[in-house]
Amino acid sequence: MRKLIVLINGVLVLGVSLVILEGEKVEADSAEARSKVSASFTFSDTIGDIKPVDPINPDPSVPGNPGGPSNPDLPEEEIPVGPGTGSNGDGLLKIDYVSNFYFGKMEYHPLEGADSYAYPETWVTEDGEKTTVPNYVQVSDLRANNKGWNLTVTQESPFKSGDSELQGAQMSLANITSQNISGSQNPEVSSGEQVLKIGESIKIASAKATTPSNIGESIGVGTNIIRFGDTQTMKESVKLHVPSGVSVIKDVAYSTSLLWTLNDTPL
Would 9 be classed as within a structural domain? Predict the structure, then answer.
């Protein structure tokens, strides 16, 4: 006798014969009631400070702080430049941290000029352990509109010591890389060596806004690290060049101010 296979209401029945009995019909009365309500909330513009993270191993859950320039030739108390700062405070688009640049002491030759490189940043863990990391900028975009952003830097004035101005000295930033630590795509960075010019805004990094052509992309949203160098190149990524034939004053400190700007204005 042939086997008969019948699928009834999703149940596979195997057998040599099949008898279907008509049983009593069972009817059940059903009732249903529905009510629709809403759930809502509002984001506040006040997020509070976002702490800097280790630029090499960025993990917000691991406490630590930048410790300023790392100079193995000077005791910490003799380094004239401390940790950098950030804009922070209220708002959803903010600069969390920017390193200060310290070039130390330069040997200047009137016929050849001189080059010097900024010391890397120091990272200090919660336990006080110190490591050397690249100079960096940390920015956060916590807005929900994915409007994108631009990070620029402007050298506001020449290097000066009191009323004495150092003519022709030029800073440059190189080996720029970026890392987003919030699950978004990495922002774009300017390639090659970026030479700073007095009073001129130089773009360092940017994140594209969401448009109809890139809907679904998330670029530079959340917290981003912009590094100058890595563990191999961090000692040669922030450069100061003083040309030959410049009048210099020995054993005095020259300094300038760098203005970092983060906005969503198209460049």
Answer: no
Nearest to 160 by CA among 85, 79, 71, 249: 249
Nearest alpha-carbon partner for 261 in 42, 23, 95: 95
Residue 20 lies in a domain: no
Which residues lie closer than 8 Å to 223 by C-beta, 6 or more apart? 50, 53, 58, 60, 96, 138, 139, 140, 180, 181, 182
**Tokens (6 digits) for 210:** 């969401």
Question: Could you tell me the maximum CA-CA distance found in the chain, to the nearest angstrom?
Answer: 112
Task: Tell whether pTM > 0.90.
Answer: no
CB contact burial 160-194 (16+ within 10 A = b; e otherwise): eeeeeebeebbbebbbbbbebbeebebbebbeeeb
Q: In terms of Cα–Cα distance, which of 93, 95, 75, 94 is closest to 84?
A: 95
Count of domains in the chain? 1
- What confidence tier does 13 reach under pLDDT thresholds 50, 70, 90? very low
The domain of 251 spans 64-263
Q: Which residue's entry shows tokens 């993270």? A: 53
> Shortest CA distance to 69 belongs to which of 132, 127, 114?
132
Contact (Cβ atoms closer than 8 angstroms) between residue 155 and residue 197: yes
Cβ atoms of 236 and 118 within 8 Å: the answer is: no
pLDDT digits (tens, 9 = 90+) for 44-89: 655 667 899 999 999 998 889 998 888 666 666 566 666 778 875 5
Is residue 58, in this structure, part of any structural domain at all? Answer: no
Strands 222-228 and 176-180, sheet pairing:
antiparallel
In a domain, 5, yes or no: no
What is the DSSP secondary structure assignment for residue 94, as one 8-state letter? E
The amino acid that residue 251 corresponds to is: D
Nearest of 143, 71, 94, 119 to residue 260 by alpha carbon? 94
